[in-house]
């Protein structure tokens, strides 16, 4: 049973409603004396507008002890709104009643104390809602924007915040409260003991109380949340305990969101003066990144994660990318087909697997010593020191670049041939000078150390930062000219596209300069979504895909005919968000077309893939991605911090190094 509702009491022209726990401490006369007019010491918490919120010290605690209170004073309203308020309750009264219900259910909200109203002749002259002041209060908008605006936004931090808020919103709805103004700014956040956040719901005057909220009502109530669309998808699944939301929820949320978006777009026409004032006040203020500029890194799966769903991402992609692919097909399609026939008819000599097989390591300072131990074991069991590829991440900053260069020198001194993958971020695209600084440092630090550089990573995937080939690729390729001058003995490969997408590769190659002197083409050739490496995709199995890459390399002006495969693996089943196919959030729903495999199948596919690629006569070297990772590595790195474990693929890889 719900607690009995408090009763209205009067003091002069005022009506007072006091929460049960405060009844004895706050008689109506005291409330009117202290707050009939705001005291001189009142401190505005937010800039006064139509409503105002003040911080006031009140002697309402036990034994007259002062308490910190927040007093929200609602502005005057029209007569017809006053008429509605007489029937349904004022904004202050509704906020108070909702806060009482949330508090009774253990849902976070500032503790309600009292509500005060003064009426005259059917008109509401004054109304105030009094609650405990909550020091150190932030909100969901501020904290989400802070995470998005970080030098390198981290996916795990964002997902943790979303999980906290989703659980709190679920609790509010389960308590029978629909907020009806659930914007990010109305979800307060307090630091929780032990880390993380505790949600506190604010601005409750529009809320309604129901016995049981339907899925459609819940969806409508969440339609004002401002979360990038793919993170919003995760948020809704979190709200539903890990399951994708039901159709009634999705349909209602989508319709309400569309209506609210229309309402927002029309706001400058409805309130031109107010909106102009807001625009002037916000002029020059830093805004959090959005659209193309929102780039989020996921340490768990070692990749950026898209902040937006594919439907929304398509709105940001430059139309010129499509025209580049069409133009490449028209101008070079015939020559490419001839080159493919020649490559298939005259493959080069097969590269012995022990000589052509390399391994990638992650330049992570926390695990580097352990990775080196496992690399030494792999070298010992394989009877040779395999070539090693390291990623030089632009988003790691100069300190990270220098650590990676130091790791490269360390590996070279230990006898491993070393290659560096130059991996861009969105900031590298937006700030070409910072990208040039990284490439310059690599040339200065690794001249005579690195045998190869693999320029760019997956430029045909927008999540890696490139949205417009024509405008953005030249700035990334330009600094490679200086790199060639500093490291004339090193092979440089480009453009590092990923997966089997000949149309995208052709479009990107149109912007690869011909005056740098590339040794050949680099490519991350994944075939995981096709299952076994012998399976075909559009008539191409692994060997024929390698032949096509060689044909591309041979047709490209200023590029030698070599091909280096910089990455390949299969995602491992039951590794959760550490797998690249289930990151950043894994729902409980059955997965469709899941390419994940068991550890045994992974080892078998790897053996077959390596032999096919290096035996094709089209590939000079293949780097496996990677030595140690929970979701896809030869060595399992348990998320709980447990001891690392060699998977079956580790022994198979060592056998390949031995020539078995």
Percent strand: 15-25%
Report on the biggest sheet.
8 strands, parallel, barrel
Average of the residue pLDDT scores: 95
**Total number of strands:** 24
Give me the CATH superfamily of the largest domain: Glycosidases
Q: How many domains make up the coordinates?
A: 3
Tell the overall outline. Answer: elongated
CATH class annotation of the largest domain = Alpha Beta
Write up this protein.
- By secondary structure, this protein is α/β, with parallel strands linked by helices.
- It has three domains: 8-132, Phosphorylase Kinase, domain 1 (2-Layer Sandwich), CATH 3.30.200; 138-288, Orthogonal Bundle (Transferase(Phosphotransferase), domain 1), CATH 1.10.510; 333-568 and 616-624, TIM Barrel (Alpha-Beta Barrel).
- It contains 23 helices and 24 strands.
- It has an eight-stranded parallel beta barrel, surrounded by five helices.
- Strand 6 and strand 7 (123-132) form a beta hairpin.
- It is elongated, with a radius of gyration of 31 Å.
- The mean pLDDT is 95.
